From TrEMBL:
<keyword id="KW-0961">Cell wall biogenesis/degradation</keyword>
<comment type="similarity">
    <text>Belongs to the EPSP synthase family. MurA subfamily.</text>
</comment>
<feature type="domain" description="Enolpyruvate transferase">
    <location>
        <begin position="7"/>
        <end position="409"/>
    </location>
</feature>
<feature type="binding site">
    <location>
        <position position="329"/>
    </location>
    <ligand>
        <name>UDP-N-acetyl-alpha-D-glucosamine</name>
    </ligand>
</feature>
<dbReference type="InterPro" id="IPR036968">
    <property type="entry name" value="Enolpyruvate_Tfrase_sf"/>
</dbReference>
<dbReference type="GO" id="GO:0008360">
    <property type="term" value="P:regulation of cell shape"/>
</dbReference>
<keyword id="KW-0131">Cell cycle</keyword>
<protein>
    <recommendedName>
        <fullName>UDP-N-acetylglucosamine 1-carboxyvinyltransferase</fullName>
        <ecNumber>2.5.1.7</ecNumber>
    </recommendedName>
</protein>
<feature type="binding site">
    <location>
        <position position="92"/>
    </location>
    <ligand>
        <name>UDP-N-acetyl-alpha-D-glucosamine</name>
    </ligand>
</feature>
<comment type="pathway">
    <text>Cell wall biogenesis; peptidoglycan biosynthesis.</text>
</comment>
<keyword id="KW-0133">Cell shape</keyword>
<feature type="active site" description="Proton donor">
    <location>
        <position position="116"/>
    </location>
</feature>
<dbReference type="GO" id="GO:0071555">
    <property type="term" value="P:cell wall organization"/>
</dbReference>
<dbReference type="GO" id="GO:0005737">
    <property type="term" value="C:cytoplasm"/>
</dbReference>
<dbReference type="Pfam" id="PF00275">
    <property type="entry name" value="EPSP_synthase"/>
</dbReference>
<feature type="binding site">
    <location>
        <begin position="121"/>
        <end position="125"/>
    </location>
    <ligand>
        <name>UDP-N-acetyl-alpha-D-glucosamine</name>
    </ligand>
</feature>
<feature type="binding site">
    <location>
        <begin position="22"/>
        <end position="23"/>
    </location>
    <ligand>
        <name>phosphoenolpyruvate</name>
    </ligand>
</feature>
Length: 428
């Protein structure tokens, strides 16, 4: 496992450019196998999840080349085959191959997905959608079998019981080449869903309503890529650097952002007293003093993102008073708390999903564990703020989701190194 070593106390300054959205990329890559032509993406983040998705593509005889943020995928010689369970279990988003394979072949066999341990995250809404489209779904020995070869996929009206980004995208992937019209009600509204719909529509799909709670998909017989798809900027990465800049920066400009995607987040920073200059595609975070405590409640988009709950936590340690976070999406997303306490943070969680953060002016570096991506991001921010050296173990989790993080932090003036992993071979 990789280690990230941070020598704290170096204030940040300068500018950082945000990469393509991880949460788009991990769905766009499986979506590419629906095409009858080669597919090209740019501004793809250089993260571990892309490498693992390439391993899955390779198992299906889908050739891919990734270099300098450009990803070329050729699914024209795709064949059904057993997918590598190691890569499947390394990231939860591998479940998008269920919808993509179902859309391509009318059947799919996939190992139950892995990813960060954030508590129970069932795929019952995905299965509900597949079954509504005419597929039978069975599970045996941790393997999911989905089959619609008898009659093919037929469009249907699907009302999701809960708002689910994963289920919304998976149903779109399955329905985009189905016969007839599919209507998804109570659909998730995240920007990444709009990104997926844009990619598919540019290949000839007919997906309408992405970004609203009702999405309509008219099935088409073929999808053909005609241009390069640019992945939208990563709003979670942007929010992470904003938290970092507000907590321990002397003026940081964050470039390649879509400010509208971050409104619920920036409104909380402004409420805290963070001074922001918000432009068309950039946000400048000024040095922050005299921060005020806030109450945060995570909600489905356009509410406060659960993925930004942990990255904002170190900043809340700087507010003069008690802040609270209620995570309604993943109540068990609290694995950063014990590690921040080890560093001197006054933070606890007495009830599931309820976090209390008090002013903690002095953090001290120590050995900590990154239990998952966003917990790791919180620890990096805390380590930059802390006195002395912090060693973040299990840092592979962080590298799964943050594009070229060592280079970006070093450019901002932080003292950061990574051990235990070959970054040259990892990131083209």
């Amino acid at each position: 496992m990789a280690k990230i070593i941070v020598h704290g106390g170096k204030r940040l300054h300068g500018e950082v450019t945000i990469g393509g959205a991880k949460n788009s990329t991990v769905a766009l890559i499986p979506a590419a196998i629906l095409a009858d032509t080669p597919v090209k993406f740019d501004t793809v983040p250089q993260i571990l999840d892309v490498k693992n998705l390439q391993l899955i593509l390779n198992a299906m005889n889908v050739h891919s080349v990734f270099a300098n943020g450009n990803l070329d995928i050729d699914p024209t010689q795709i064949r059904e085959s057993e997918l590598p369970s190691g890569a499947i279990k390394s990231l939860r988003a591998s479940y998008y191959f269920m919808g993509a394979l179902l859309g391509r072949f009318n059947r799919a066999t996939v190992t139950f997905p892995g990813g960060d341990n954030l508590g129970r995250r069932p795929i019952d809404q995905h299965i509900k959608g597949f079954e509504a489209l005419g597929a039978t779904v069975t599970e045996s020995n941790d393997i999911i079998h989905i089959d619609a070869t008898a009659h093919g996929l037929i469009g249907a009206r699907i009302a999701l019981d809960t708002v689910s980004v994963g289920a919304t995208i998976n149903i779109i992937l399955a329905a985009v080449r189905a016969k007839g019209q599919t209507v998804i009600e109570n659909a998730a509204r995240e920007p990444e869903i709009i990104d997926i719909a844009t990619f598919l529509n540019n290949m000839g799909a007919n997906v309408r309503g992405a970004g609203t709670d009702t999405i309509r998909i008219a099935g088409v017989p073929s999808l053909k890529a005609k241009n390069t798809h640019t992945v939208i900027p990563d709003r979670i990465e942007a929010g992470t650097y904003m938290s970092m800049a507000a907590a321990f920066g002397d003026g940081v400009t964050i470039k390649n952002v879509i400010p509208e995607h971050l409104e619920s987040y920036t409104s909380k920073l402004i409420e805290m007293g963070v001074n922001l200059d918000i432009g068309e595609d950039m946000i400048h975070v000024y040095k922050s003093d005299d921060l005020k405590p806030v109450a945060i409640k995570t909600m489905p988009y356009p509410g406060f993102a659960t993925d930004l709950q942990q990255p904002i936590t170190p900043l809340l340690l700087m507010a003069s008073g008690e802040s609270t976070i209620q995570d309604t999406i993943y109540p068990k997303r609290v694995k950063h708390i014990a590690e921040l306490r080890r560093m001197g943070g006054d933070i606890d969680s007495e009830k599931p999903g309820q976090i209390r953060i008090n002013y903690s002016p002095r953090l001290v570096g120590t050995d900590v564990q990154a239990a998952e991506i966003r917990a790791g991001a919180a620890l990096i921010i805390a380590a930059i703020m802390a006195e002395g050296e912090t060693v973040i173990n299990d840092a592979d989790h962080i590298l799964r989701g943050y594009d070229r993080i060592q280079d970006k932090l070093t450019h901002l003036g932080a003292e950061v190194s990574i051990e235990g992993i070959d970054l040259i071979n990892l990131m083209p």
